[in-house]
Write a structure and sequence with these properties.
- With 106 residues, the chain is of the alpha/beta class.
- The protein has 5 helices and 5 strands; from the N terminus they run βααβαβαββα.
């Protein structure tokens, strides 16, 4: 149920550690916009992501084949995507809490 801030993430991606370490700040920035934060792990086994994402308070989903990348035409990971209740993209942002704090709906 949107609207949501979706952090598309993979452990192998440059910047993955920084994004995970910033999850508390992401959560706060999302809440300020009335958004829920969720992480979608892509293109790796859930067994790789679970030890990292499972220790956080943020809900996460596993997308082994990267369908979200195709659906939203994303070309880099990590990336932050803001979506409405219907799943329509409202914004594609750098994967930083500052970018989310500075985001303004169009």
């Amino acid at each position: 149920n949107g609207p949501a801030a979706v952090l598309v993430w993979a452990s192998w991606a440059p910047g993955a550690d920084a994004a995970v370490n910033s999850l508390p700040d992401f959560t706060e920035a999302a809440r300020a916009h009335g958004l829920k934060l969720v992480v979608v792990d892509v293109q790796e086994g859930a067994d790789v992501a679970a030890p990292v994402l499972g220790r956080t308070a943020v809900p996460w989903l596993h997308d082994r084949h990267g369908a979200i990348l195709k659906s939203y035409r994303l070309i880099r990971v990590p990336i932050l995507v803001v979506v409405d209740r219907a799943g329509a993209v409202l914004g594609r942002l750098d994967p930083t809490p500052a970018a989310l704090r500075g985001w303004a709906p169009q």
